[in-house]
Structures are given as C-alpha cells and as structure tokens.
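Design a sequence for this backbone.
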C-alpha cells in the first residue's frame, strides 16, 4: 500500500480529531456555544423586556397627552363661556346705563320745559298786568284798549318768538 500525501493528511486529520475527542474538547466547545447561546437568549429577553417597558411608557405618555389635550380644550371652552358671560353682563350694564342717562336727560328736558313754561306764564302775566295798569291809568276808550291788547300780544310774540 502506498502512502501519498493525501492519505497521510487524512490519517493525521482523523488522529487529531480523535485526540480532541478523547480530551473532551468537544464538550468545552459545546459548553462555550451553549453559554454564548444562553447569553444571546438573555440579551434577547432583556431587549424584549425593555421594548415592552418602552411601549408601556409610550402608551402612558400618550394617555397623559390625550388627557392634557382634553383639559386644554375644556379650559378654552370655559374661557370662551366666561368671555361670553362677561360680554353679556357688560351689554346689560351698558343698556342699564344708557336707560338711566336717557331718563336723566328726559327729566332734565322736562324740568327745562316746565321752567320755560313758567317763565312764559310769568311774562304773559307781567304783560297782562302792565296792559291792565296802562288801561286803568289812562282810562282809555275801546279803540285804545284794542290797540293796547294788540301791542301786548306783539310784545309777547317778540319776547317768545
């Protein structure tokens, strides 16, 4: 039988693996691979746990965000309602003020009219008294009396217009 390089390499290869098997190197390699696999599995479990925590935290913050948006909308609605209420109160107060001032103006006009009427009556009375005094002093005839009455009417018209 002839030994060539390939046969020698094959025999050396078989002997090498036999020695490794006899020394239990395969158990060490499998143990290392199992350890590495366990380490990777632990990292995957940790990553999964962290992802679940992150998703839970995200859901919590989204719920808080939704609650904050709802509260903000409620605050805006309350502010609008209050603004409308204040505007209505201001409108009612303004109408009351306008009515009060209008009443004051009407009262002032009524007083001025009463005063003017009193002044006209007083002036008419004075004119009548003056005419009567002239008639009594002069003891005039009917023509003279008619002229005096006509003159008194012109005087009143000149004074009050």
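Sequence:
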């Amino acid at each position: 039988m002839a030994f060539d390089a390939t046969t020698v390499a094959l025999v050396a290869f078989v002997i090498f693996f036999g020695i490794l098997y006899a020394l239990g190197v395969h158990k060490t390699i499998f143990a290392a691979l199992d350890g590495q696999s366990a380490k990777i599995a632990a990292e995957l479990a940790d990553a999964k746990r962290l992802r679940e925590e992150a998703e839970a935290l995200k859901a919590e913050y989204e719920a808080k965000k939704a609650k904050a948006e709802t509260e903000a909308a409620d605050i805006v609605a309350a502010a609008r309602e209050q603004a409308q209420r204040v505007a209505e109160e201001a409108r009612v107060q303004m109408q009351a003020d306008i009515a009060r001032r209008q009443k004051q103006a009407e009262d002032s006009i009524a007083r001025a009219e009463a005063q003017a009427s009193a002044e006209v009556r007083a002036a008419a009375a004075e004119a009548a008294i003056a005419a009567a005094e002239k008639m009594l002093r002069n003891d005039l005839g009917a023509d003279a009396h008619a002229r005096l009455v006509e003159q008194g009417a012109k005087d009143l018209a000149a004074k009050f217009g």
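Residues 19 and 25 are 9 Å apart (CA to CA).
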